[in-house]
Sequence to fold (227 residues):
Amino acid sequence: MAQPWTVLASLPTPEGALELRQRGPKDFVIVVGGRVLMSSTAFRSELAVAELACKPLAAAKQPRVLIGGLGMGYTLRAALDALPPSAEVTVAELNAQVVQWCQGPLALLTGDALADPRTRLHVGDVAALIGRERARWDAIVLDLYEGPHAASQKPDDPFWGRSALLRTHAALAPGGILTVWAEDFDPPFVKRLESCGFAAIEVHHPGKGGRRHTVYVARRRGGPVAP
Fold:
């Protein structure tokens, strides 16, 4: 008989209760409104979205990386493992409670990635942070709980709409890398990336067997793009 889940923490959100649950020493899930957002037993795409952005920067002098979304910290851990000691990694997380979880019971999963001296924590909206920057980041990693998809997103979506992608393009240094996690492949998103000045676009489906999520990889071209 499977061990039952214990709710370690819960708080209300517009999408329903956000909960951290545990049923073994390293067996955790983060749930919102009954929907599993992350599991400590299935995180291969979270590793891939960081590695595809950061491994090309392993020999860079002082790479600066922005990660949108903390989750359980696996994406941050993978970025730190791929980057040199001189790197600066800013991770933006909207929910302060998630930060506390990663500093508390979830810290053992990632070797306490938030405590790494290269880590900078921003509690707030990553879209707003991106909008304030120009040519700053060598890589931007967007590992949000909802990736690009056509079903419900509008042209002015704050992350995946054209204006948002233009802001992301501007925030990257020339040649900078953007990686994006998504549940499923969305062909129109690739076309929007192209129209916003991104090039060398790749689509990956990490792992083998089971549910395979999507990771997009794109690079910023050199000049500005018309709005």
Observations:
- The two ends are 57 Å apart (CA to CA).
- The longest strand covers residues 172-182.
- Helices lie at 44-54, 74-82, 96-103, 126-131, 162-171, 187-195.
- Residues 77 and 111 are 8 Å apart (CA to CA).
